[in-house]
Design goal:
By secondary structure, the protein is of the alpha/beta class. It contains 27 helices and 22 strands. Helix 20 crosses helix 22 and helix 21 packs parallel to helix 25.
Length: 732
């Protein structure tokens, strides 16, 4: 029997689950079993847990449906646990180094008590020193093992369930489980401390609790806050079993939590506030211990109002607080007095339920995921009136049949103020207000290899160019939906852009064409780009280097063509940062940087050569050869930061020098068996949701309001037929 069973619920935290599991597996004390509890087979968290189980036999994942909630997940772990003591670890927290050794030593020294509460670190999500909230409470406890009567304030209400080690036999003998519903820690903790006979504490921090940027999900607005009273009533029913001093402490701690919720301006829906207060008032009068002394100060006033059921007076008190909060809020405004006045006036007008605004790459034109969603919306949701936002110098390139507004113009602010739907692959301007009723869709514009969002903060070169991370996160707060092309992206977005948006694992709409284009489409695009008939077109698409001030190819393309073979031509597509609206050809080099559609360019290419550009993830949907030219991988990895080692899992052969790259093409390695095997594994991992129907899924869910279960499922990778290449190649 292992010393510890460590149960790790993982719903909604797949992006950080690996860190939690790694923190356990890295412990110096190794006598434990690790039980990740995942939503179900095939979920992002299940994949993370399975990978850890393959590496370490102590990891034993189990499944619990999301509908079972936190209580169900913990219960599923408890049913299979075999350890002498149970520990609960949230999937986005970590065990501190040496934690299990310290727990084992303390439990042994105190003779294996029923429960051992311990200190924990509360780490700010962004910056600042960690605190130890439980420190003062635990410091008041006796030094050895003791009966709870000797520490009356240790009621189990003020500590989260993961801040203690529980003797499994004690929980089983007393039939203590997590009650269903929200705020389950209160009911569980109160039952544990009411029935425990031998308790000890550890004042050394065991867990580092990471505060979520969007806050504890329990405290988001919603009707679930009424369940706090269910848990309070369950805990108050235990009071007759307690000493008078413990009963008083339990009562005070429970109603401190109840009053905090009743007085919060946004937690409870307006229609539920009176009923919540009245029920709380009834509980207060029914369970108030004899001789209870009302606290002093503002809290005492609230106690008296609750005791008398004076909701009108309590509402006035809460209203004063709401007024103070509103006074501190500022409305973001665009620059310029006339523009500010116009925008504020438009914001007072009702939303147009059929107006959608699209933007791509900060106004560079009709492109990427927003363009693909726009086109599909015209087909499936013709009632939607769409306006594309574009910079003035790109307006001439907009398709003639696409309505557009120039960024900064009067109409630009008018449509932004009144649109119900806003779709962007970057972010809207700083001054754009998120109105109630609007739906913001963040489509993203690539699968992340390099670090993104707040993950860039530890890379000085990138962080200096990113600007204010606080402003970045303010823009993230406007998102309602965020698109993902694969589960790798889902996990990265959760970490890099923490927010309360919903992830849509629908694929990237811009990649639909890779499954729908025909041989005629490929031939047409090649003719438009000037690719000579019968030639092998190699797309060279290097990414941006944050430490470069201008575009550098990093490769002598003419020399590459000569060395690779006489049938090779190169399609040069620089990063969009270097698009100056001019295309030029030189010998066997065709510059396609300014071509509007990167998807067309990919369709025209027989193979891709790139370094670390996200275009490799999109191009892989075509199942055509990819070669990685990694001449400065170590520099890029250390300077820019990456999410995985591309050299260990590339989409094809890797070259580090121009000579190696030329040889790969000259001897046919670029299209050989090894290339196919590497590409197949890469496609399995990163082409998960791109099946040609991503745009349709977005339109049906967002614009037509269809429920998730009605959205077309993703076609399995093995059943997809990519657009044919001009050069006949054997596919994976």
């Amino acid at each position: 029997m292992p010393r510890f069973s460590i149960i790790v619920p993982s719903h909604g935290v797949a992006g950080r689950l690996a860190q939690a599991l790694d923190s356990v597996l890295a412990q110096s004390f190794g006598d434990f079993e690790l039980i990740p509890v995942c939503d179900g087979p095939g979920s992002p968290a299940a994949d993370v847990a399975a990978a850890h189980a393959e590496r370490d036999s102590r990891v034993a994942p189990v499944h619990s449906p999301p509908s079972a909630g936190l209580a169900g997940a913990r219960g599923a772990g408890m049913r299979v646990a075999t350890g002498a003591y149970l520990l609960f670890l949230d999937g986005d927290d970590i065990l501190l180094p040496g934690a299990l050794a310290a727990l084992h030593a303390r439990l042994t020294h105190t003779g294996d008590p029923d429960v051992l509460p311990f200190a924990y670190e509360r780490a700010p999500w962004w910056e600042g020193e960690p605190t130890q909230p439980a420190g003062p409470l635990l410091a008041q406890a006796p030094s050895g093992v003791f009966h709870p009567d000797r520490a009356p304030r240790l009621t189990g209400v003020q500590l989260p369930a993961w801040a203690a080690a529980y003797r499994r036999a004690f929980l089983t003998e007393r039939d203590i489980t997590f009650p269903e519903g929200h705020f389950t820690d209160i009911g569980f903790g109160a039952a544990v401390m009411a029935r425990a006979e031998r308790v000890a504490v550890l004042c050394e921090a065991v867990i580092r609790h990471h505060v979520r940027r969007q806050g504890n999900r329990l405290y988001l607005p919603g009707e679930h806050h009424t369940e706090l009273l269910d848990q309070a009533e369950r805990a108050l029913a235990l009071a007759p079993e307690l000493s008078a001093e413990r009963a008083h402490a339990l009562f005070d701690q429970l109603f401190a939590a109840v009053l905090k919720t009743a007085g919060h301006p946004r937690r409870l829906p307006a229609r539920r506030r009176r009923a919540f207060f009245r029920r709380a008032s009834g509980l207060y009068r029914r369970h108030r211990p004899a001789g209870h002394r009302t606290p002093g100060g503002s809290l005492g006033v609230q106690h008296r109002l609750l005791a008398t059921g004076a909701y009108a007076a309590f509402r006035l008190l809460r209203g004063a607080k709401e007024t103070a909060v509103r006074a501190g809020e500022r409305l973001p405004r665009p620059r310029g007095l006339r523009t500010r006045l116009l925008y504020r006036w438009q914001l007072r007008r009702p939303l147009d339920p059929n107006l959608a605004v699209f933007c791509a790459y900060w106004g560079r034109g009709y492109a990427c995921n927003p363009a693909a969603i726009h086109a599909k919306a015209r087909e499936l949701a013709p009632h939607i009136r769409s306006v594309f936002l574009v910079e003035a110098d790109q307006a001439h390139a907009m398709p003639k049949d696409v309505d557009h507004a120039v960024i900064g113009s009067r109409r630009y602010w008018e449509v932004l103020a009144r649109a119900t739907y806003l779709v962007n692959n970057a972010n809207f301007a700083e001054g754009v207000v998120k109105r109630p009723g609007t739906v913001h869709v963040q489509t993203q514009h690539g699968t992340p290899l390099k670090k993104m969002g707040i993950d860039q903060s530890t890379y000085p070169v990138v962080a200096a160019q990113t600007g204010s991370f606080a402003k970045l996160l303010g823009r993230v707060d406007r998102w309602d939906y965020n698109l993902s092309a694969n589960r790798h992206s889902t996990q990265v977005w959760e970490r890099a852009f923490p927010g309360s948006y919903e992830q849509l694992e629908y694929g990237y709409p811009r990649n639909d064409v890779y499954c729908t284009a025909t041989a005629e489409d490929v031939a047409r695009v090649r003719a438009e780009l000037g690719v000579p008939e019968g030639k092998t077109a190699v797309l060279y698409a290097p990414t941006h280097r944050d430490w470069h001030t201008g575009f550098e190819t990093g490769l002598d393309l003419e020399a590459f063509c000569e060395a690779a073979g006489e049938d090779v031509v190169v399609l040069l597509r620089a990063h969009y940062f270097y698009d100056r609206g001019r295309s030029k050809a030189s010998g066997r080099i065709i510059d396609v940087t300014s071509h509007r559609s990167s998807e067309d360019v990919c369709l025209a290419a027989d193979a891709l050569v790139t370094d670390y550009s996200s275009i490799m993830f999109d191009y892989a949907n075509l199942d055509r050869p990819i070669v990685v030219y990694a001449d400065d991988w170590e520099v890029y990895r250390e300077t820019r930061g990456v999410y995985f080692d591309l050299m260990q899992s590339p989409p094809g052969p890797v070259a580090h020098t121009p000579e190696e790259l030329a040889r790969i093409f000259r001897d046919g390695t670029w299209a050989g068996e090894e290339s196919r095997e590497l590409r197949a594994a890469f496609r399995e991992r990163f082409c998960e949701f791109d099946d040609g129907r991503a745009a349709e899924r977005v339109v049906r869910r967002v614009f037509l309001g269809e429920p998730p279960e009605a959205i077309p499922p993703v076609t399995p990778l093995a059943e997809r037929v990519p657009a044919p290449a001009a050069t006949t190649l054997v596919r994976s």
